[in-house]
Amino acid sequence: MNDKGRLTYLARNYYALQGVRFAPLWIAGLLLVFIWMPHFEECNCIGWGALYTAIAVTAILEAVWFWMASVYYRRRFGWLEPAKLRLATPGSGNLFWWVSILGLLAWAVYCRVNHSAAFFPYFVAFVMAQPVFDGENPPARRIEYGIGGVLIAASAPFSILIQNNGTIYFATLCVCMLALSIADHLLLLTLMKPVGTDD
Amino acid sequence: MTEAGESFPKVDRMVHEPSRLAILTVLSACSSADFVFLQAATGLTKGNLFVQLTRLEEAGLVHVEKTVHCNKPRTKVELSTWGKRQLSDYWRTMKKIQAQAEIQPG
After folding, report:
1. Which residues of B touch A (CB under 8 A)?
2. Which residues touch B78 (CB under 8 Å, ≥6 apart)?
3. How does residue B77 score in pLDDT terms, banded at 50, 70 and 90?
4. Å from A54 to nearest chain B CA?
């Protein structure tokens, strides 16, 4: 990526690269999956109360972390007002994007008719892998998100196959998104130099 | 025999300077940015960035606005309409020069 490309990419994707803001969400998801979910059926009525409490605490912690991370990014990397809402840049992945969207739409209609929620995990995987379809992203970021999307999507049928109530799917989703958010932050650090707080 | 560089299109020196070109490139990809973002993205020192922004503002290429956000001063910089036109003219000129250099023998 040349300097012009780097600067343009930075200004257009600055907020998307602030991955650390969402890290606690995925950590909390993982904790929920591994610590609490195995005991869910034993808990019965108390289980729902514990679930709501866990979700509420997670939401509060995430909000506090999000605010602190935003302040960190604003102080160290600055602030900008994005140009406008951008969808995936037309390019090499454009045809695949439209084919995938139409395919998912057809599947959503099929699932709706058959009263099934099978569509949902694949839809989430597709939404999470959006950077793959943006031709402006560096190849490394597109590959990372592509692998992440495939892993999330593949974990859904695997989860059904071994009948584990979606635990593997949610765990894969959380691990992939946590890794990708950290990778985004590292990419930001390679693209721009944080400004010291002492000056 | 023509003088050296006479056949090439004229380049706007205000835009051509690398630091100023970096600032204008960042601003062309967003609505506005603050001083810290420009400093982090371009890698310029505080003093150099301030000087370059002053020059760009004097040339009418950017608008600099000083605001207060959460009790802290924020310098917001925005590319002017004239700046957008000058930057796109600059890239057009550079493409012309590149094309001319490619067709000229030697």
Report:
1. 22, 25-43, 46, 74
2. B27, B31, B32, B62, B63, B65
3. very high
4. 32
pLDDT greater than 90 at residue B55: yes
A24 belongs to a structural domain: yes
Mutation test of the interface with chain B: which of A12, A75, A79, choosing the one with the most B Cβ atoms within 10 A?
A: A79
Nearest residue to A130 via CA among A141, A121, A115: A141
pLDDT above 60 (res B58): yes
Query: CA–CA separation, A196 vs B64, rounded Å?
Result: 23
Tell whether domain B14-98 is in CATH 2.70.70.10: no
The total of other beta-carbon atoms located within 10 Å of residue B18's CB is: 11
Interface contact flag, A193 B43, Cβ < 8 Å: yes
CB B66 within 8 A of CB B74: yes
**Which candidate from A8, A81, A195 shows the least CB-CB separation from B32?**
A81
Residue B78 in contact with residue B62, Cβ under 8 Å? yes
Q: Which of A140-149, A164-173, A178-187, B62-71 has the lowest mean pLDDT?
A: A164-173
Query: CB A79 to CB B42 under 8 A?
Result: no
Single pTM value for the model: 0.80
- Confidence bin at A198 (pLDDT 50/70/90): very low
| Number of domains chain A contains | 1
Tell me the residue range of the domain where A118 lies. Answer: 3-191
For chain B, give every domain's residue range: 14-98
